[in-house]
Amino acid sequence: MERDSGVPQQLPLGVSLRDDATFDNFYLSPDDPNRQAVTALKDFAAGRLPEQVIYLWGEEGAGVSHLLQSACQSAEEAGRSFQYLPLGELLPMNPAVIFDGLEQLELVCIDDLHLLQGQQQWQTALFHLYNRVRDGGGQMLLGARRSPRGLGLELADLASRLQWGLTFQLQSLNDSDKLAALRRRSRLRGFDLPEDVALYILHRAPRHTGALFSCLEQLDRASLMAKRKITIPFVKEVLKI
């Protein structure tokens, strides 16, 4: 369906995408169970899948938010109109205003759906947006920490709608994969993280990958400013761990 080229790709909501949230930055081991989901999302973001709705869920640190933002980055590269909406940042706002006109976009990505429990105004607004997007031929990518059945929504019609689309559960990385992902991310940032330093961070920092990558980003900035290599003493000094 042809879209109005005058619709902005990003609405002025103070929401931005992380530069490092790309499909290339999402670590996949050779036999990774998440590979099917990532492949589907790449095709979905580029408009190559007929499905109108994909629901992606996984525990904190599994990479749900990363992949939703990656889909938006990919949609932008494909010249598609899109919007990324992290509900964790937007719940204090009026959902009717936030969702107004989004059905004109080609891809709407809504994150943090697990926060909708008890938010009846948001549930009603999302139900109507869901219907408008489907009726208009658009696509929705939805992310949460719980499955559609596990959201505990009060609006039964919305709970039912969320079970209609294609659903993927992301599996969290084991420690070996986290170590490999941490070292790979460091190389993508332009430096090599020694294995002993990566192990030190893995065993002492918060365990989920989002926190580990935040530690890496903090160390990278501090290393550039201090013009020092990232060693275990430097990690202790900067991260206080």
Question: What features would you describe in this structure?
Answer:
The protein is an alpha/beta fold and 241 residues long. It has two domains: 35-169, 3-Layer(aba) Sandwich (Rossmann fold), CATH 3.40.50; 175-239, Helicase, Ruva Protein, domain 3. Helices cover 44% and strands 10% of the residues. It has ten helices and five strands, in the order αβαβααβαβαβαααα. The protein has a five-stranded parallel sheet, sandwiched between helices.
**Rg from Cα:** 19 Å
- CATH-defined topology of the largest domain: Rossmann fold
User: Tally of extended strands?
Assistant: 5
SS content category:
alpha/beta
Number of domains: 2
Major pleated sheet: 5 strands, parallel
Mean pLDDT: 91
CATH superfamily of the largest domain: P-loop containing nucleotide triphosphate hydrolases
Write the layout of secondary structure elements.
Layout: H1 35-45, E1 53-57, H2 64-77, E2 82-86, H3 87-90, H4 95-99, E3 107-111, H5 120-136, E4 139-144, H6 156-161, E5 166-169, H7 175-188, H8 195-204, H9 209-226, H10 232-239
Parallel strand pairs: 1-4, 1-5, 2-3, 3-4
In short:
This protein is α/β, with parallel strands linked by helices and 241 residues long. The chain has 10 helices and 5 strands.
Based on the model shown, name its key terms:
241 residues; Rossmann fold; Helicase, Ruva Protein, domain 3; 5 strands; disordered N terminus
